[in-house]
Amino acid sequence: MTTPKFITYEQGEAALNWLGLTDALAEGHGLPKAEIEDIFLYRGDDTLLSRAAWIDGLGSLVKTATIFPGNAPERPAVNGSVTLYSDTTGEAEAFVDFHLVTKWKTAGDSLLAARRLARPESRKILILGAGAVSASLIEAYSAGFPGAEFTLWNRTAGRAAKLAEATGARVAQDLEAAVGEADIIATATMSTEPVLKGAWLRPGQHVDLIGAYRPDMREADDEVLRRARLFVDSRDTTVGHIGELKDPIARGVIAEADIVADYYQLDAFRRESDKEITVAKNGGGAHLDLMTARHILSQVGA
After folding, report:
1. Are residues 29 and 178 in the same domain?
2. CA-CA distance, 167 to 139, in Å (whole number)?
3. Contact 297, 94 (CB under 8 A)
4. Distance between CA atoms of 270 and 202, rounded to whole angstroms?
5. For 163-194, how does the pLDDT look when each residue is reduced to its tens digit (9 = 90+)?
6. Fewest C-beta atoms under 10 Å: which of 49, 124, 232, 251?
7. pTM over 0.90, yes/no
């Protein structure tokens, strides 16, 4: 009987790098397509999300997340557990720290898209939100775009100022002006109403949509989607499940056919010109957790 390995947050942080992870995610999409199943339970603003994935040749994983927005700022709003299983025996191979997997999967997912869609010379990066995801995005984008300058915007300015002090970013006072100056715009809020307006965008920008994960959540307005070429990490976990796409598709603003590709068509993740606006929706499915956890295990050591 195999004894599962317990991987702590500290062990993973010491062993990982962002470019290596994005390469592992790209390689994972060269394997047979993942089987994915999600279960969502809701109680008011709180969510219990259980995600399972199985990739032939890589193994299987179950990740359960509890999302309690009311926890912030005293304690993390998102908690949970991650179990990685052997593809050959079905035995548990590793229990990996939930926050470690979530951090690296979420920001790595966004960085993989940006490395292919954002203009290589992009240096001005605007992040909407000031939570844990925003902090990890600064790490990830710094690795992918050396010398990048970061600007933060948050509805609660004090939280943005606190993260800016810790990371060396500056705080935007005028969101519309900050959007106009940015090369890359990442949204990592928990908003149910759009905070990013398409009228503010200019040619050549890349937009990274992260925060919306429920059918009733939007971060970008309809005009953002109309103006951009659209990409998703997974059609299976975004189109019918997340308001960012489900709502405008249902109203005929965009069509599902407007989505150019997901990561299983990774070769299609490319710009057609320096003038176009690109949007990538980060849905963060369990298959990405599986790829990330397997990579973590390989780096920490079996």
Report:
1. no
2. 9
3. yes
4. 18
5. 999 999 999 999 999 999 999 999 999 899 99
6. 251
7. yes
